[in-house]
Write a structure and sequence with these properties.
Helix content is about 35%, strand content about 15%. By secondary structure, it is of the alpha/beta class. It has a single domain (about 5-200), classed as Rossmann fold. The chain has a six-stranded mixed β-sheet with strand order 3-2-4-1-5-6, with helices on both faces. Helix 4 (about 95-100) packs across helix 5. The model is unreliable at about 205-210 (pLDDT under 50).
C-alpha cells in the first residue's frame, strides 16, 4: 500500500449559474451563499481525515471550496489548471435551453456525447478526459501512502469516475455529480479504483446535480 494514494475528489459548491443551468466552463463564476455553506460543511466533515495536500482548479468556485477544506485540514491549497472544468467555448454563458434553440446542430452532438465534438473555442470530451486523468496521475504520484483532495468541477468528476470504473466516454451517466459531495478513489501506478461515491451525509439535503457545467 506504500505506492498507493487515497484521493477525495470534490466538485465545487453551488453557484448561481448552477441553479440557472447556465454553462460556466472556463468562466470564473463565484460560489453563491449556499455554495459557501456547502463548502463549510464539507470542510468540517473532512477536518480530521488527515489530508496531506489540497489541489484545486484555479477557477474561484473550486478554489474557494478547496480553501475551506485546506484551512480545516491545516494545509496549503495549491492551484492546478489541469483540474479546470471542460472548456465549453461558444456554449459558455448560455443556458441548456438557449443552446438547444440557438445551436441545435452542436447541441445534438453534445447530447450524443460525441467524444470528438468540441464547441467552437472549447474542448472535446476526449481532450478533457485525457487532461484530467493525466493531472490526477501526476498529482497522486507525488503523495504515495498519503491522502489528498482534488477539487474541481462536474466534468472533472465525471472523467475521474469513468476512468476508475472503466466507463466509455459515450456511456450514459448513472452516477451523480453533486456539489460538495465526498467521492473516494484509490490511485496506484496501475491506475484508479473507485472506493466510494456521492456521500452527502454532511449536507442537510441533496446537492444540486447538473452535470458538467
Amino acid at each position: 500500500m506504500h505506492d498507493t494514494t487515497r484521493i477525495i475528489a470534490i466538485r465545487h459548491g453551488q453557484t448561481a449559474w448552477n441553479v440557472d443551468t447556465r454553462i460556466q466552463g472556463h468562466l470564473d463564476v463565484p460560489l453563491n451563499e449556499r455554495g459557501h455553506w456547502q463548502a463549510q460543511r464539507l470542510a468540517a466533515a473532512l477536518a480530521q481525515e488527515g489530508i496531506a495536500a489540497v489541489y484545486a482548479s484555479d477557477l474561484s468556485r473550486a478554489f474557494e471550496t478547496g480553501r475551506y477544506v485546506a484551512q480545516a485540514a491545516g494545509v496549503a491549497i495549491r492551484p492546478d489548471v489541469g483540474l479546470r472544468e471542460r472548456g465549453f467555448g461558444l456554449f459558455e454563458g448560455r443556458t441548456f435551453k438557449e443552446i438547444e434553440a440557438e445551436l441545435p446542430d452542436q447541441a445534438l452532438l453534445w447530447r450524443k456525447r460525441d467524444p470528438h465534438f468540441a464547441p467552437a473555442g472549447g474542448e472535446s470530451l476526449r481532450q478533457v478526459q485525457d487532461r484530467v486523468v493525466s493531472t490526477c496521475h501526476r498529482l497522486a504520484a507525488q503523495h504515495p501512502g498519503e491522502l489528498i483532495a482534488l477539487v474541481g468541477h462536474g466534468g472533472v468528476l465525471d472523467a475521474l469516475y469513468r476512468e476508475a470504473t472503466r466507463q466509455d466516454l459515450q456511456a450514459p451517466r448513472s452516477w451523480e455529480l453533486g456539489n460538495a459531495a465526498i467521492n473516494r478513489l484509490l490511485w496506484s501506478p496501475q491506475g484508479l479504483a473507485l472506493v466510494g461515491w456521492g456521500d452527502v451525509a454532511h449536507l442537510s439535503d441533496d446537492a444540486l446535480d447538473d452535470g458538467t457545467v
